[in-house]
Specification:
- This protein is α/β, with parallel strands linked by helices and about 350 residues long.
- Helix content is about 50%, strand content about 15%.
- It has 2 domains: about 120 residues, no CATH class; about 200 residues, Vaccinia Virus protein VP39 (Rossmann fold, 3-Layer(aba) Sandwich), CATH 3.40.50.
- The protein is built from 16 helices and 9 strands.
- It starts with a strand and ends with a strand.
Length: about 350
């Protein structure tokens, strides 16, 4: 079978800017340009390519090389050779992949996170989030005792890991809101296993919250709105349901994002035409470790993955009435910039670091 190569279009460059302005743009372009007749075989090989990239990139993060961009270029080159060999040795009879039942963004997103979060074990669910959130808040001057007796919203709660953590940290009433029925069912099941007074869950959208104006003392949104169809509406809703003099916590992914987010965008492009359910099932069969599925597939398989600069986020929050907007510069022990504070090339590898903000409302 002859390999087919296509030029990288402007649409692809717009989705994957590193193809234009990175030191590894040639390697990335060669990888993304590879093409073959649509089939389950080709889809499987692209999934395997992403699997390889994720594992090699994780090793790169752990090794912290002096020139991470060159190391990443080598990863891309190696995976390109793998895919070329796969194309050249494909069988003569190709079969189509099973198509997804729906391509509706909200349905795929809900299904993705419903499946992703359900694999957390008890320690990762009940204990770790309290420690991580406590460190992130306290190291940035937030007095955790402020949460005592407060009503809290976990907007886009997933299966309730941080809903439970917010209760652990002192909040008296915590409501978790999520659009995934799978997530809400898992959250309620885990809550029944370790009951906690004041914790409850509700099915609903962060873009149209079923709550009155000013209902919560503390609103919390941890890595949610960048996956929605209307990030601005989500920010407006967060501020709307927060009480005057209340406080809010927001986490969004970052631009600039360094090699990490270029890697994510390259992988998203490789899997762009692969049926979501097929990709998800193959990654499960490959026994990809839970922590790597969470770190990378979280953003690779979700339909929408918006990155913003700190200024863009701050300006948007202010436009919807947020005040005292502060980007958190410290993190938990496991966070990249905290864990590798003395790594000279940390900004090349991770860009500006994950955006976490605290804000208030008059």
């Amino acid at each position: 079978m002859n390999m087919q190569a296509t030029l990288v279009s402007q649409d692809i460059i717009d989705r994957c800017p590193c193809l234009k302005d990175s030191s590894y743009k040639d390697e990335a372009s060669k990888l993304i340009s590879l093409n073959a007749p649509a089939s389950s075989d080709w889809d499987l090989h692209k999934i395997m390519a992403v699997y390889r990239i994720c594992f090699h990139f994780r090793k790169l993060e752990e090794d912290k090389p002096a020139q991470p961009d060159k190391a990443f270029a080598k990863i891309l080159d190696d995976v390109t050779h793998y895919l070329k060999a796969a194309i050249e040795t494909m069988p003569p009879y190709l079969y189509p992949s099973q198509q997804d039942e729906t391509d509706k963004v909200e349905d795929v997103t809900a299904d993705h996170y419903g499946n992703l979060f359900s694999y957390f074990n008890d320690e990762k669910y009940y204990e770790e989030p309290s420690e991580l959130l406590g460190q992130r808040l306290e190291r940035n001057g937030f007095d955790l005792s402020w949460l005592n007796g407060k009503s809290v919203l976990d907007a886009g709660c997933g299966n309730g890991r941080y809903t439970y953590a917010l209760s652990n940290l002192g909040a008296s009433k915590v409501t978790g809101l999520d659009m995934s029925k799978t997530n809400i069912a898992d959250a309620e099941k885990r809550l029944s296993g370790r009951p906690r007074e004041g914790v409850s869950y509700q099915l609903g959208s962060v873009l149209d919250m079923p709550f009155k104006d000013g209902e919560f003392d503390f609103v919390f949104s941890n890595g949610v709105l960048h996956h929605t169809t209307d990030l601005d509406k989500g920010l407006e809703e967060l501020v709307r349901v927060m009480k005057p003099e209340g406080r809010g916590f927001l986490m969004l992914i970052n631009d600039p994002g360094g090699i990490k987010w270029d890697m994510i965008e390259i992988c998203r492009e490789l899997l762009r035409d692969v049926p979501y359910r097929y990709a998800h099932d193959i990654f499960l069969k490959l026994n990809m470790p839970t922590h790597l599925r969470f770190l990378y597939l979280d953003h690779i398989l979700v339909p929408i993955n918006i990155r913003l600069s700190a200024k863009q986020i701050s300006d948007k929050l202010a436009s919807y009435g947020a005040t005292d907007i502060e980007r958190l510069e410290r993190g938990a022990d496991v966070d990249e910039f905290e864990k590798f504070e003395n790594y000279a090339d940390k900004e090349i590898l991770w860009g500006s670091g994950i955006h976490r903000f605290l804000f208030s409302k008059k």
